[in-house]
Amino acid sequence: MKILLADDEKLIAITLGDALLEAGHAVTVVHDGKEALQAIHDNNFDVIITDIRMPHADGYSVLETVKKIHPQTHVILITTFATVEDAVNSVKNGA
């Protein structure tokens, strides 16, 4: 699978990225929302894993852009600051 991983926490990105690579996936890692949006415009990913809170563009912006450009792409939102409202909004928007 071709996966985009977007997280500004570099240790999390490296750890998760390495695990996905070991599982045999092609992984692109970026560290802010602007880089994620550029990667989405330049590539077609099967899955996007994105942090909700990142510099330059948040995970919701990434989700919205993905669903407009590549509606078949699956999006997984991750965060250390989750609320029930965040979860409900994410699901309503296609995550």
TrEMBL record:
Q: Name one GO biological process term.
A: phosphorelay signal transduction system
Q: A Pfam family in this protein?
A: Response_reg
Q: Which residues form the Response regulatory domain?
A: 2-95
Enumerate the InterPro entries for this protein: Bact_response_regulator, CheY-like_superfamily, Sig_transdc_resp-reg_receiver
Keyword entries, A-Z: Phosphoprotein, Two-component regulatory system
Instruction: State the PANTHER family in the record.
Output: PROTEIN PILG (PTHR44591:SF14), STRESS RESPONSE REGULATOR PROTEIN 1 (PTHR44591)
State the protein's name.
Response regulatory domain-containing protein
